[in-house]
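Incident review: delayed structure delivery

Summary: a single-chain prediction request sat in the queue longer than the usual turnaround. Root cause was a stuck worker, restarted by the on-call engineer. No data loss occurred. The affected request and its eventual output are reproduced below so the record is complete for anyone auditing the incident later.

Affected input:
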Amino acid sequence: MANVSGTWLGTYWQQDSPTRFEVTLLQSGNTLSGNILDDSHLGEASLTGEIIGRRISFTKRYLGGSQHTVSYTGTVSEDESFMQGEWVVQNFDSGPWEAHRSGDDLMAELQNRFAERVPMSVGGR
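Output delivered after worker restart:
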């Protein structure tokens, strides 16, 4: 199962117009929760969802303004640094989305890089 906890920077496209967003995901087993801040008049939203293997799905609910919920589905890359998929607003609008892991989670990134460079077994000296 992919680990998606942390901060992600992304873009979704609505009618070929891009909107940037920042999402913070908290993963507990297969369950996801978090917050999204859209760079638009819609603003902040909460999310709940799940991850199974590398498949991610979540529902976004805006905290003010729009009463619509947005359903996201997608796939997380094998190195867990990128995800992409499709969003749908109650069957009347949809489009693609993608997100890249933000550099804000420097400790996790550092641990991953350290694990890649250090041999699992040092061997007898």
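Verification: The chain has one domain: 6-117.
Action items: add queue-age alerting; document worker restart procedure.
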